Amino acid sequence: MAAALLANTLYSLGFVLEKRALTALPEVTVRRPARLLRLVLGSPLWIGGSLALAAGFGAQLVVYRTLPIAAAQGIFVSGLVLLVLLSARLLGERTSGRERYALGAILAALLMVVLSLREGPDGGDTVGRAAPYPLILLVCVPSLAMGVWLYNSAERRARHRHRLPTTGVEYGVAVGLLYGVSSLAIKGVSGYLTASGIGEALLGLLRSPYPYLLLFTGAFGLVMSQAALQRCRASLIVPVCTTVTSLYTAVIGTLSFGETLPEDPLRLALRVVGTALAVTVLLSMPRHEPPAPRPAQPPVEAKELTPP
């Protein structure tokens, strides 16, 4: 639990620092990744945010060794509250009433998932350690392709003239799919940390698809997330990304790593309803920012008419 809360704090702080650094940089784009990397690596504030995210990654490894996937994701999503608070305090972002209700519904949905877990001296929910490699590739490769396609589609629509600015929901879903695959890979890596010897664990890890999935999602996720984060509010895009990542990891990871679904009807209903509620909220979130109010026009003074 302590490691999960630490990961929440580090991830929230890291995203906010990166967003603040990106607002001071020239516009970045995924079509020029080398320029993007050169710009962000020249920003000490961005590097500080990246180090916070890397530390959160280390804490996440500890969590996956001790908690079921669904429980871990429920705790991670609770960090959205801290993210919204930091965004308001450090970035000056404000969320609309509809967005606050949506975030509250997402937290309630994932609380249902946490409540569906069973713990106790007789043995709680199973903590999976390994998954068949063909199954991991079967679910991860199409997910990566879908994430890249969705991101490119959002980019094409955003370049159309006369369109309202996007809120970032599409970007958040696309990057969330990539980070969901990354989260599954982290779960797979954590299973090798229990091996008896370092050499044996390293050899087994290199034979698995997990380090290569991490490299792909790390490279593409970095470029895609930074470009999206610069354009959109962190208080909206990061919660959407986190929710998609958590749902993807909880559902796909539970099945892939053999963490069985609850047998009790009430607990099963909580997990299913919570997942369905989170998906419904995501689908109903606004796709575009409201138009900026036009400045008030000064009143036209009536000209005095003089008789001819």
Overview of this protein structure:
Helix content is 71%, strand content 0%. It has twelve helices and no strands. The protein has helices at 2-23, 33-41, 44-66, 69-77, 80-91, 97-115, 133-158, 169-192, 198-206, 210-231, 234-256, 265-284. Helix 1 packs antiparallel against helix 3, helix 4 runs antiparallel to helix 6 (97-115) and helix 7 (133-158) packs antiparallel against helix 8. It is globular and about 50 Å long. It starts with a helix and ends in a 24-residue tail after the last helix.
Write a brief caption for the model.
With 308 residues, this protein is mostly helical. It has twelve helices and no strands. 71% of the residues lie in helices and 0% in strands.
Main beta sheet strand tally, sense and closure: none
Structural class: mainly alpha
Amino-to-carboxy terminus distance: 88 Å
Q: SSE string, helix = H, strand = E?
A: HHHHHHHHHHHH
Low-confidence region ranges: none
State the helix count: 12
Strand portion: under 5%
| Quaternary structure | single chain
Quote the average pLDDT. Answer: 78
Shape: globular
The count of β-strands is: 0
Rg, nearest Å: 22 Å
Percentage of residues in helical conformation: over 70%
Write the layout of secondary structure elements.
Elements: H1 2-23, H2 33-41, H3 44-66, H4 69-77, H5 80-91, H6 97-115, H7 133-158, H8 169-192, H9 198-206, H10 210-231, H11 234-256, H12 265-284
Helix pairs in contact: 1-3, 1-4, 1-5, 3-8, 4-6, 4-11, 5-11, 6-12, 7-8, 8-10, 8-11, 11-12
